[in-house]
């Protein structure tokens, strides 16, 4: 019951949060000193042609009227038409969203799969050589720029060693689109050759995105484990003669992961934002590369659509994290 109340409380704030995101995104997009209409019209367009196009796009109306129309349209699932592709932005986003989500989910999974055990080991081996090495690695992961790391990975693993493809999502056309997630679609079709080709293309971008995420997870897991180990209940279990391995994996880890789970939710949003640079470097056909193209072309509608969709994804992920918190620690749902 308490968990249900927590979920309803989070859902209550969902709508005003999304509305606030839309208003902020719209306002920022329209105060940027650039004229998308002139860009679309071309260099040879006359002033009359530019004004006519501006009227057709509804950009001659006062800002508050444009904002109201945009909010109503977004709530109906209509993000407008791209000024560059001249296609509905909702279709562009829907076609590219699976690629970004697949890359992000795999990156979060890899970072958690590796980072949580490393964080536990780092805490249990506190101040050892291994602990110092892991702390250096985590600091490096947080300090290194993603685009620079991506280029280094391309130079070393793709161009120098030839172990992985340089860029792209798959060689050729890829599997038949069922879910939009190539890993899942290739397995559904029983096409293992395509599956491993998709995996090989994901290695470098996943390594680039997962490295800073792994660093964060290691640091928070280590801190959580250290705090839990020094708690009274752990001392009691040790005094009762319970094996340390059982204490760590059955009691300590559950309490230590509360902060880590929170960070995973935040990391997901950070990776969505980081995908803008990484996808551009690896020519990954997702939301990130679409956002970069839209920014370079001053395509306001597409930029706003990308920002709103990314924000909604981030809000939904954090809602999920709150629910998971309720299961891990019932005190969180009080």
Automatic annotation (TrEMBL):
Kindly indicate where the leader peptide sits in this chain. Answer: none
- One Pfam family, please name it: BPD_transp_1_N
Q: Which UniProt keywords apply?
A: Cell membrane, Membrane, Transmembrane, Transmembrane helix, Transport
Q: Where in the cell is it found?
A: Cell membrane
UniProt key word Transcription? no
Keyword Membrane present in the record's keywords: the answer is yes
Q: Which GO terms describe its cellular component?
A: plasma membrane
GO MF terms, alphabetically ordered: dipeptide transmembrane transporter activity
The entry's family comment says: Belongs to the binding-protein-dependent transport system permease family.
Question: In its UniProt entry, what is this protein called?
Answer: Peptide/nickel transport system permease protein
Which taxonomic lineage is given here?
Bacteria, Pseudomonadati, Pseudomonadota, Alphaproteobacteria, Rhodospirillales
